[in-house]
Design brief:
The complex is a heterotrimer. Chain A is built from 19 helices and 12 strands. In chain A, a hairpin with a 2-residue loop joins strand 4 and strand 5. Chain B is mainly alpha-helical. Chain B is globular. The N terminus and C terminus of chain B are likely disordered. Classes of the chains: A alpha/beta, B mainly alpha, C mainly alpha. Chains in contact: A-B, A-C, B-C. Chain A: It comes from Conexibacter arvalis.
Chain lengths: 434, 305, 298
């Protein structure tokens, strides 16, 4: 019966879309294809977050109601094309007024070619509500070039039902953590989800285990002061390889998390995999599969391997940038200011259900709220994730080599040698460039 | 000669007139049934992935996660829910109709340009026939990646970027070389005498092309529509690079977006999207497929120019 | 004075044929040939995503020779081309021979052709699920028939991942090869075959000594088209593995895209495109020659 109704509805919706779609292409054809014809003074806002469109539209509308200039989002379905589009148009008047980007080294490239407008005045006004770690990610030569579009922490998510059934508590020490893994393994449950699908996820446990050993080591490695071939890093890979061989991780070629086939929920929901360390943006995927945050899944920060490593958490943030050469730079700066304000962030968190970057705006769901509390109570130090924290040529080689290690966890040496080789080249180039 | 005067041979392709050896009874029935079994096995291997495309979207996420991929769906009507979800979530609606318009416009413009060119090359007094043919045909030789970056820059420099007309022009252009190839092949099979009557009536070259040659070319044109529409519809890379907006962006980049990094869709919805993206070309094939053999046969019967 | 008008008309008549060429040459010139030529230029520069770069001579090409990823890419491209020849051309010919004499042939032809109507992206998505090592169709099927020991991580272990994708490409590309061979078979002259049959030639012998040589022009076309298409395969690989893991399944086309659009070494990427084009062009000469010799094929 319900199917019958939904089928009818599908047909209606389909019919409507046919009319709307042909009208749209007809208009486009008549107008010579000018795609930015409507919007009545709305700013052009490009991004590659294809599933966030509704939320951007909604906040753009609210921005306009609030008196700031509103925006209309344009979504790119492919990240590489998106990067090419921004880089190629960045210094021309065709550049969108504002756009999403990546923090750290990927952002430096745009700053170096003067594509981004200075937004330091916004940070002066709103900065106190954000953590310093976040601000650093957008700071170059003492100035800020973006406001946080989104922020995601990288905790370890776990299936609460599995933990209940196995009589497990959230681990607080490394020994607890290993005991939890051992217990799960004994029960025929894969303790941790891991994947190489989509290329980038191979850095997840690499960065996690380094940070759990020594946050300073992580920072040094990211900034070229430590080498991949240093014994501390070799030890981390040995440990990781050992855990893989013990069967603590899922087959990285079968499971895909947050991208590609995105089949992780089919393992996580029924409890075939119990935990996963991943970015907070995995949550909507879990909820889409019918898991309720706080009831079916929760999150904790992975315990330290070296007890004295302190309270640290990996985060990821992307800036909202204003184009320096955009036709409406001042309007866009105003819009970015509203976005970073308390009002703007509340509207964004309401619309998206994501974690909040502002201390005075609560996150939308209980899992994120708990992470926020943990960070605040434990005075956590936030560290930018691998993807943005180190020059991108190193990242590209790094994720490929680490994927190789995940598939064949043997001798770490050739893996780390290969990454270091690229690191040497890249850091030499950075030296020469500055 | 005979072939050319019959515009659309309707007989089932391959059933008659095939010169390959007739079934030789003396060769033994065993060998024959062995090939039969082999072909059957292959046919099954070809059906199974197609079935995966058709059956998986009929499952709910719950069902997909808990049963084997080989299992049949318990509630096939789930298909419509999944298709609707795919349709809604990736902006497929407007992409679907944008691609439909590119496919039709691109194929028709390319066939027209190709036919004009082929006519000039095969029929009109022209210097450097072979050069012109090669020049245009070289367009299919380059790996398509070769065009990407300069094309992208050209488009951003000229305001063609992310416009309907820009996309339609590119798709027309990329379909031209093959159209020229086929139309040239076809026109050179038509004996010149056929035009004589029209020439006696004082028809211009334009009139001959439209009143004599094009009506004969129904088969090749059907094949070209099938091929070019399918190609344009299935294009992923150029749509990805040259367009972004709803209403301009074609369907394949929109579909792949379903699998993108911020996607929340599970396998049944992803495959439902793939199914939506495949239906038009499958339908076109079922509609025009019979021309495939006959249309090609006709253009292949010619000998020397 | 009539001469000017007559001269003008003559001039017009002389130029009319070129007017017919104009739309096609314009479209192809602007949208295909100009970008291709420009890419050749870019291959000799150090252009990046944000700068047009300057002329660097053959630097990009010498870098290619030393790049281990490029060597993997060349090797995989060779796998693709050989695999396509054996599977798509070989099976295509076999099927064409069998189906042209089968009663249910028409339906089977349609079936085998059907995947060719799907996009590379859709085919990639489908086979991605077929090859999933945990629950995929292939692994569970092999488990059922007791061949579990032969299963592997289809898309993660080189060179199996390349072979797996070649298989997926065969699923898609077999139909067109088969159709072209069917056309070739239909257009074979009858006399030599009848004559050979009168002489007592049958079965394999007839095929090998009479049918196959007669089929040669069409075979050349099928071989050339299959080669060119498989040199260019991109969508399928990009959707299934993105050339990974650790760049183990990249082909030249994928490497080119990756260098240009992922790492933004635009000049370097263009040099890969040039190498690829050179190879394809050399092979195409073979194609065009066979095409222009005697028979106007398809």
């Amino acid at each position: 019966m319900t199917s019958e109704i939904s089928r009818k509805k599908f047909l209606q919706v389909g019919g409507g879309a046919i009319a709307a779609g042909s009208l749209a292409s007809f208009l486009a054809a008549c107008g010579g294809g000018s795609s930015s014809s409507d919007g009545g003074g709305m700013l052009r806002f490009s991004n590659d977050k294809i599933n966030w469109e509704e939320w951007f539209v909604e906040t753009g509308r609210l921005a306009r109601e609030a008196g700031a200039v509103g925006w209309r989002p344009t979504q790119y379905s492919d990240t590489t094309t998106y990067q090419a589009a921004i880089k190629t148009t960045g210094n021309t008047p065709k550049v969108p007024d504002m756009f999403s980007w990546w923090s750290g080294w990927l952002m430096k490239e745009l700053v170096d070619t003067s594509m981004l407008a200075d937004v330091s005045s916004i940070w002066e006004r709103e900065g106190s509500a954000y953590s310093d770690g976040l601000k650093d990610a957008f700071t170059f030569d003492g100035k800020q070039y973006g406001v946080p579009l989104n922020v995601a922490y990288w905790p370890t998510f776990y299936n609460k039902r599995v933990f209940r059934e196995q009589g497990l508590e959230v681990p607080t020490t490394w020994d607890d953590f290993i005991a939890v893994c051992e217990r799960l393994k004994g029960a025929g449950i894969t303790p941790l989800g891991a994947t190489i699908e989509g290329r980038f996820p191979s850095f997840v446990y690499f960065q996690e285990f380094i940070v759990r050993t020594s946050p300073q080591l992580y920072r040094d490695l990211m900034e070229g002061r430590a080498k991949y071939t240093d014994p501390e890093i070799v030890d981390v890979l040995r440990l990781w390889g050992d855990l893989i061989r013990r069967g603590y991780f899922s087959d990285p070629a079968s499971v895909s998390i947050g991208t590609g086939a995105n089949n992780f929920p089919q393992y996580f929901k029924p409890g075939r995999i119990a935990m996963v360390t991943f970015g907070g943006w995995l949550e909507p995927t879990l909820m889409e599969a019918g898991m309720r945050p706080g009831e079916d899944f929760g999150a904790f920060v992975m315990p330290n391997i070296e007890a004295d490593a302190g309270n640290n958490l990996i985060y990821e943030t992307g800036p909202l940038c204003v184009a320096q050469n955009g036709q409406r730079r001042d309007d866009a700066l105003e819009a970015a200011g509203w976005w970073a304000s308390r009002e703007g962030q509340s509207a964004w968190i309401d619309a998206s259900g994501f974690a909040s970057a502002r201390a005075d705006v609560p996150s939308a769901n209980p899992v994120d709220q708990e992470i926020d509390r943990t960070i605040a109570d434990g005075r956590f130090q936030l560290l930018n994730r691998y993807w943005e924290a180190t020059p991108h040529e190193i990242v590209e080689v790094g994720v490929d080599q680490l994927a190789k290690f995940m598939l064949e966890p043997g001798d770490p040496k050739p893996i780390l040698d290969a990454i270091q080789k690229q690191a040497d080249t890249s850091w030499a180039a950075v030296e020469a460039g500055s | 000669m005979e072939a050319a005067s019959v515009p659309t041979p309707r007989r089932a392709p391959g059933s008659a007139g095939a010169p390959a050896p007739r079934r030789s009874r003396s060769a033994g029935a065993i060998a024959f049934s062995a090939t039969k079994v082999g072909v059957l096995v292959m046919a099954v291997a070809w059906i199974v992935p197609l079935a995966l495309l058709a059956v998986t979207p009929m499952k709910s996420f719950e069902e997909y996660s808990s049963t084997s991929q080989w299992a049949l769906p318990s509630d096939p009507l789930q298909l419509f829910d999944n298709m609707k979800q795919a349709w809604d979530s990736a902006g497929l609606g407007s992409a679907f109709f944008a691609s439909l318009s590119y496919g039709l416009v691109g194929a028709l413009v390319a066939i027209l340009c190709g036919a004009l060119g082929a006519y000039a090359i095969t029929r009109l007094p022209l210097k450097g026939r072979f050069f012109w043919f090669l020049l245009v045909f070289s367009g299919t030789l380059f790996p398509f990646q070769m065009y990407l970056i300069p094309l992208f820059q050209l488009y951003t420099d000229t305001n063609l970027y992310d416009t309907w007309i820009g996309m339609a022009m590119f798709y027309s252009a990329i379909a031209v070389p093959f159209c020229l190839f086929v139309m040239r092949g076809f026109f050179s099979t038509i004996p010149p005498e056929i035009e004589d009557a029209a020439k006696l009536d004082g028809a211009s070259s334009w009139g001959i092309l439209w009143r004599v040659l094009m009506p004969l070319a129904r088969g090749p044109i059907a094949v070209l529509i099938l091929f070019q529409f399918t190609w344009i519809w299935n294009d992923f890379m150029f749509g990805l690079v040259l367009s972004t907006s709803d209403g301009v962006r074609p369907i394949m980049p929109a579909l792949v977006g379903l699998q993108g990094a911020s996607s929340t869709a599970g396998p049944p919805v992803v495959l439902a999207g793939a199914l939506i993206g495949s239906l038009p070309t499958i339908a076109l094939f079922l509609l025009l497929g019979r021309y495939l053999l006959s249309g090609l046969t006709l253009t292949a019967t010619g000998k020397d120019e | 004075m009539p001469p000017p008008a007559g001269a003008r008309r003559r001039a017009l008549r002389r130029w009319t044929p070129y007017l017919y060429l104009l739309p096609m040459v314009l479209l192809v010139g602007v949208f295909l040939i100009y970008p291709a030529v420009k890419t050749v230029w870019v291959a000799f520069t150090d252009a990046t995503g944000t700068s047009a770069g300057s002329f660097v001579g053959l630097d990009n090409f010498t870098r290619l020779v030393e790049d281990p990823a490029f060597r993997t890419s060349v090797r995989n491209t060779i796998y693709w081309v050989i695999g396509a020849l054996v599977l798509q051309v070989g099976l295509g010919l076999l099927l064409a021979l069998i189906l042209s004499n089968m009663r249910a042939g028409d339906w089977l032809k349609r079936l085998f052709y059907l995947p060719a109507t799907l996009s590379g992206a859709a085919v990639g998505v489908i086979w991605f699920y077929v090859f999933n090592p945990d629950q995929g169709l292939l692994t569970s099927f092999m488990g059922t028939i007791g061949l579990e020991s032969l299963t592997t991580r289809w898309l993660a272990d080189p060179p199996v991942n390349t072979f797996a994708m070649i298989f997926a490409a065969t699923w898609q590309g077999l139909g067109p090869a088969m159709i072209l061979f069917l056309v070739g078979l239909q257009n074979l002259p009858r006399e030599p075959i009848e004559a050979a049959r009168v002489d007592g030639a049958r079965g394999l012998r007839l095929f090998w000594h009479v049918t196959l040589p007669l089929l040669r022009p069409m075979s050349a076309v099928v071989v050339a088209i299959t080669l060119i298409n498989n040199f260019k395969v991109f969508d399928l690989i990009w959707v299934m593995t993105q050339g990974g893991p650790y760049r183990s399944s990249e082909t030249l086309a994928v490497s080119m895209y990756r260098e240009s659009f992922v790492t933004f070494s635009v000049g370097y990427g263009a040099s890969i495109a040039v190498v690829l084009t050179l190879i394809v062009t050399i092979l195409s000469v073979f194609y065009l020659r066979s095409m222009f010799r005697k028979v106007e094929v398809y």
